[in-house]
Fold:
Amino acid sequence: MSPLAAELRATLETTARQFHELVDDHMETPWRDFLQAWGELREAYILKRDDEGAYFIETG
Amino acid sequence: MANTGFRNFLDDLDRAGELRKISKPVDCRHLSALAEQADEATLFENIDGYPGWRVATALVSTRKRLAIAMGCTENRVAFEFEEKSSRPIDPVTVTTAPCQEVVMEGDDVDLTSIPLPLMHLFDGGPYISGTFAVSNDPEYGPNVGCYRLMYRTPRETGIDLVSPSDMRFYYQRALDKGEPLPIAIAVGVHPLDMLAASYKAPIDTNELALAGGLRGEALEMVKCRTLDLEVPADAELVLEGELLPIGWTADEGPFGEFSQISGDVKWNPIFRIKCITHRRDPIFYMLQMPWENDWLAAPVTEAAGLQALRIASVQPVDIRAPVGSCGYWALIASIKKRPGEGKNAVMALLSVAEVKYVVVTDDDIDIHDPDELDWAIAFRVQADTDAIVVSGARAKHIDPSVKAWELGKGGLPTTAKLGIDATIPEGVPRILYRRIKNYGRDRVKLEDFE
Structure:
C-alpha cells in the first residue's frame, strides 16, 4: 500500500470522514495521485459507509 | 463524418456567444464549482495534471442552449422533439472512428488518466456524470441510456442502476443467469444523442435511430474494441467493460442529483472496465448538475406528455415540464377542450413515467405565466371534483417523500400522484370568465400624454 493510501487508511480507522473532507486534507496532493491511493483502499474492500455517507474502516 | 457531433455543438455555442473558454490551469476538484458561476457553457482548455485534455460542461444548462442544440426556438423544443423523433433514421456502421484514436487495454487501463471531476460537496467520489451507455440483450436488442459512474479504482466504477430502466432489466436477466452484462459507455456526444438516450421509450424502440431522427442524419457507430457492441464514432471517450454479476451490493453515491438534492448512499452493481479508447486530443464532458440534466429531461418529459395526450385523443396546445420540478416530476398543459377532456388529459399526463403533479388548463391560459396558472386554479377548480389522486404509482428513489430507505437493497418505491383539472368546468358558461379590459384601451397610448 502506498504511503498516501496508508495515511488515508489510518485516518478512516480513527474517524468517519466524508470524501470531500479527505480531499480537503490533501489539496496539495496531485489529484491523480489521490485517486490512485483511493483506488488502493477500494481494492482492499475495507471501506464502510455510515448513515450520512461518510467512509470509515472497522478495526479489530 | 457527421456535422452534428459534440464538437460541432461546441462551435454552435461559441458562435452564439454561449461558450466561455478558460485557458488558465484548473484543478479537477474545482471544475464544477467554476462552471456553476458561469452564465455560459464552459470549455476548460488547460486541466492541471492532465496535459492534452480539455473539459466541456453545462452545454445545455438553459432552455436557450437546448434550443440551439435542437435548432429551434425555445417554445418549440417539445414539439420539435416530438416531430423529429417520429422520423427515426437507422444508424450506420463505420470502421474507423475518432473515438478510437488512442486505445488502452489490459494493464494499461487506468481511469485516473482521465480528468475525473469532484463535483459536489457530499459526493461519494469523483463522477462521470454525462454518459451514453450502450447494452444489449439477446432477445430485446441494443439499448441506450444515461447512467452516472462513480470512480472506485483505476479499473472500476459504481453505476447508478437503482431506478427502473431497460438496462436494469437487461442486467437483471444476465444476473439471473449468473453472467456479467457487457456495456460500453460513450462520453462526449451531441446533446441530441443524450436526449435520445434518456427518452423513456418502449423497450423495442431503437434509441440510436431516434438519435438519428433528432440529428436529421444517421448516427455513425463503430464496433467496440473488446465487446460485441457499437458506440458513437464521434464520441470523445469510450469505456468498454461489464457490469459484474453481484447485484445491488456495492455502495454508490451520494451524488448531486438532478432533483437538486445531494441524495444518499445507494447499493448498486460495479462496472469493471476492460478497455478505454479516446480521441488524440480528447474533451471530457462533465454534465453539470442539476440544471443541465433538468433541461435535458424537460423535452423528453414534455414529448412523452404530448404523446400521452394524443393517444387519449386530446388536442394539446402547449406543454411544459417546469424546471422547478427538475423537468421531470410535473407537467403543465393547455388543451383545446371538449366536454370531459380536462379529466382525460389529467389521467393521460399522470401516466407519464414518474410525473407526480399535473395541471391541465384551457387554451386561453398562458401556462408559462405562473400568475395565469394560479388564476386558472383559483377560479376553475373545485377540489372535491377536479383534483385526482392516484396512489401506488411508480416512483424514483431520489424523491425523499417516497421513503426509499425503508426498502431493501434493489427495492423499488411507489408514490401518490396529484392531477388538477383547471379547465372551465362543464356547465359553467365561458362568459363568466370574460377578463376585464379598460374602456378605450385600443385608442389611447400613455406615451402620447407624457
Notes: Residues 312-433 of chain B form a domain with the UbiD C-terminal domain-like fold (CATH 3.40.1670.10). Residues 291-311 of chain B form the longest helix (21 residues). Chain B touches chain A at residues 27-29, 48-50, 111-113, 115-116, 118, 121-126, 151-154, 156, 251, 253-254, 264-265 (CB under 8 Å).
